[in-house]
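To close the chapter, one final illustration. This time we ask the reader to focus less on the individual chains and more on the assembly as a whole: which components sit near each other, and how the overall shape emerges from the parts.
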Amino acid sequence: MALELKDITYKYSAGTAYEITALDHINVTFPDGEFIGIIGHTGSGKSTLVQHLNGLIKATSGEIIYNGQNIYDKDYSMKELRTQVGMVFQYPEHQLFETTVYDDVAFGPKNQGLDDKDVALRTYEAMEAVGFPQELCDVSPFELSGGQKRRVAIAGVMAMKPAVLILDEPTAGLDPMGRDEILNMLKETHERTGNTVILVSHSMEDVANYADRIIVIDKGQIKYNDTPKNVFKHYKDLEKMGLAAPQVTYFMNDLKNAGMPVSTDATTVQEARDEILKLMGR
Amino acid sequence: MSFIEAKNLVHEYFRRDENDNVVDILTAVDNVDMNVEAGQFISILGHNGSGKSTLAKHLNVLLTPSSGTLFVDGKDASDEKNTLDIRQTAGMVFQNPDNQIIASVVEEDVAFGPENIGVPTDEIWQRVEKSLKAVGMWDYREHSPNKLSGGQKQRVAIAGVMAMEPKCIVLDEPTAMLDPDGRKEVLDAVHELNKKKGVTIILITHYMEEVVGSDYVFVMDRGHVVMQGTPREIFSDVETLKEHRLDVPQITELAYELKKSGVDLPDGILTRQELLEALRYLDEN
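The assembled structure is written out below.
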């Protein structure tokens, strides 16, 4: 069981003088239960790619296979797909619309046709997962702080219990602690439920800290699809794509260039610390 | 008198019911004293809801003090007569470049501000040229802004503010929506304006790395200024920063972790170069 893209090409304004190829023959598989980071500079095609995964954009050519079925088949239920593949957009708090937090989070599961009891269960569970205090569930979402709104919006998608959870820059504009809380929550839910998480991010540090595997997109093509260590090894190549490596990876290279015998593949603070301690014989 | 001088500055948001009765008061800025000298590069840190954006909006009179005083370039912000003057003294750049660009050609977008305040046409074009060159976007002057990258758009927005020839630019999370390249472009452009043109910079950010090159840092929490000092002083106190829901640059964090494991490093290491030198020193001795 997996989500599989076969030779996906997407062209904006196809057939006109303004035609732009946003995705160029993409082949990639998202196996069940992985935590995957997607990075790429603005305009690389990463948001276009993830919007294909739940059928919001239809490819110009190619196939998407979810759990063995082609989602472009005539009798395939897109509605079913969208409850299985949940999507949290950039700045999801702009999409809050109900009069209370509870109603907003409950909107998804209600639409899935669950009865009131199950809806309530899912709603409270999702609020707990994102760390939103239950006693505030009758407050208007518009009276909350930015960080709280973001949590409510993410809870609204999580309440549908999607097997695949896609998040497009879920931490943009959050303070460092808010960022850590959201990412830890995603990791924790991922470990507890075994869901697939696809995290689109502009922060190299965040994908290095949380993802099992990183997909790098440049000019509509997949350039790397590997572990953080193996991807950030190519930091010079990433820079040419408008990306970078985590600061600590650069630092390990600084040490090596200064003649110290260290391995340069650390991508997190902990890994760098352990490698340096090893060097110093501790 | 300092270029920006806030004394006991308070800002309260009122929440009202249908009958306009006040039901709740939120003190977003609470008794803030702040002095900024002309030509300084200042960063303001604070978690979401700490009051930093509310404070920043006072600097170009989008908001006025509920009590206390604020003087910008010697002018009292509470006096309505000064509003336009202060807005020309302190320009503002926001988070989302798409909300700030209005024209369909880059140079026209930059010309919009000076045109509005009645600058003669010849001078407008001189200012447009100067501003676009200052942010490295002159080659794109005839492009359409919506074909630019996020970093480029944000630099056009900064050029638009520059064309008003402000003494000070306030940037409220200008890089939050940008990729690493875009963040670097914007930061480089802002530092350049500060160094070469002497523009006073007030930068609000959640990226700790962006603070490293500032002259002075203010940290806000619950409307108060809770820490202030040079980046080195601020980032030396990792524990206190974390209490305020903040963080330190990744290199500072690494040095802090090494220190906790018994490596004899000084506090407040900010850059790769500094950490490298400190480790080499230990290695050689």
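Chain A has a mean pLDDT of 93. The CA atoms of residues 14 and 156 of chain A lie 34 Å apart. With these observations in hand, you are ready for the problems at the end of the chapter.
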